[in-house]
Q: What sequence folds into this?
């Protein structure tokens, strides 16, 4: 059954042919209904999964001291910037540099609440954004990615998975706040997205296949139902209106054009964290390259190009824009791993399931942005923001684990390097983890392609 609408411009099918686009320098512009189709499963999924996007609101409230309405306004601005990726030629569902959030919050706590803390966040957003732009424009991003050994790349991905898992199940973490709701959401997500027995049965039962095509939506719905029943979530208070925007308040209290730009000393203080965030984000670029590469191999009717330099540039634009107009604790990263995996897995099912990867990623981000204006949905989702955030982190952890191991499968030394690199990232941070991975590679892998130790 066809589940998409459009597009106006049909592609010439074949492994070397891309979906039509308008070329603009490094960018490949694609517009909904013209260059890519509207995918209803992703549209429905977006209305539910925008709860994860809204998960930034409580962090912004707590860290910057802003109201929920101002925080939601920031989320909407970020939601608009999300759309740049699919529409400028980046075949992913973009997201945050999620594992870096605890580092960012801890760093900002050194500054007093108010303009000083906001300026520190502005410094981070701008410095991180400029670093991404420089690496992308000069082409150094791709060269940097190509220089990293496969085992170290796998270790970075594996470390991101461990960090995501730890943020849910560590003592005092999200699991302890709503153990039943988180468990229900996680179990449903793992079954519908990854369980072999469920996949086999869904091929025979249309209803089960439809549920699988909805990505993580079933998991969030189950958690929303169970949460209030067990007393872990409040029953939402619904307000029927369009989401109110607090642009004036946001600009006057949080934009550097009003409160002043950070001093040179604040910018210098931020640079070590900027480098750490990029090292973590580097894992997302590697992960995106791997996931999209697998999707490209799975289908012979369409060529999918993931350009690391272009992804760096688009992510850089987003961070700079946020730093200037809506300082964001969740730095703009190239990938929402869980949703990119969900879209890619449905894409692999064939043309009847998803006509083009661009329809999946484009529809999802357009609908996420539009859905944020539907205030009743925002009200319904508000009590469940922590649950949605936890589920998406666990799916990311699961996907990171199997993708990392597939990269080094059958190579004994490479597996060891990847596992120890990932463990060091989780225990001591990204900088130590990357250093450990490179040293281990030089010690036990370099020039050892055919040696017995790495069979």
A:
């Amino acid at each position: 059954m066809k589940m998409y609408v459009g597009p106006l411009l049909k592609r010439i099918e074949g492994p070397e042919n891309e979906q039509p686009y308008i070329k603009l320098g490094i960018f490949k512009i694609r517009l909904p209904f013209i260059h890519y189709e509207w995918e209803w499963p992703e549209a429905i999924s977006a209305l539910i999964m925008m709860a994860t996007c809204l998960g930034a609101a409580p962090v912004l409230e707590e860290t910057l001291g802003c109201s929920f309405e101002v925080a939601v306004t920031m989320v909407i601005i970020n939601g608009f910037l999300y759309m740049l990726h699919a529409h400028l030629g980046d075949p992913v569902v973009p997201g945050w540099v999620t594992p870096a959030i605890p580092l960012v919050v801890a760093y900002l706590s050194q500054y007093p609440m108010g303009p000083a803390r906001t300026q520190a966040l502005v410094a981070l957003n701008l410095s991180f954004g400029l670093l991404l732009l420089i690496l992308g424009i000069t082409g150094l991003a791709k060269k940097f990615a190509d220089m990293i050994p496969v085992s170290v790349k796998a270790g970075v991905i594996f470390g991101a998975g461990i960090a995501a898992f730890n943020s849910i199940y560590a003592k005092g973490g999200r699991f302890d706040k709503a153990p039943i709701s988180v468990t229900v959401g996680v179990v449903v997500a793992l079954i519908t997205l990854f369980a072999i027995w469920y996949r086999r049965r869904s091929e025979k039962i249309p209803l089960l296949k439809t549920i699988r095509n909805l990505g993580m939506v079933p998991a969030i719905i189950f958690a929303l139902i169970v949460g209030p029943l067990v007393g872990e979530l409040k029953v939402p208070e619904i307000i029927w209106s369009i989401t109110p925007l607090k642009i004036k308040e946001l600009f006057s209290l949080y934009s550097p054009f009003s409160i002043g730009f950070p001093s040179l000393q604040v910018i210098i203080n931020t640079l070590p964290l900027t480098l750490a965030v990029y090292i973590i984000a580097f894992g997302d670029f590697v992960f995106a390259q791997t996931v999209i590469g697998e999707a490209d191999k799975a289908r012979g009717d369409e060529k999918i190009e993931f350009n690391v330099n272009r992804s760096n540039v688009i992510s850089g634009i987003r961070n700079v824009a946020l730093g200037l107009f809506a300082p964001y604790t969740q730095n703009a990263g190239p990938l929402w791993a869980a949703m990119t995996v969900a879209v890619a897995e449905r894409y692999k099912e064939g043309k009847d399931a998803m006509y083009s990867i661009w329809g999946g990623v484009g529809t999802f981000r357009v609908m996420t942005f539009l859905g944020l204006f539907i205030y009743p949905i925002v009200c319904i989702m508000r009590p469940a923001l922590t649950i949605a955030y936890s589920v998406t982190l666990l799916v990311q952890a699961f996907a990171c684990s199997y993708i990392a191991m597939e990269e080094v499968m059958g190579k004994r030394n490479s597996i060891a390097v990847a596992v120890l690199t990932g463990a060091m990232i989780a225990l001591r941070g990204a900088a130590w983890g990357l250093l450990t991975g490179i040293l281990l590679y030089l010690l036990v892998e370099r020039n050892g392609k055919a040696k017995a130790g790495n069979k």
In short: The longest helix spans residues 264-298. The chain has 23 helices and six strands. The first strand starts at residue 4 and ends at 5. The CA atoms of residues 252 and 258 lie 5 Å apart.
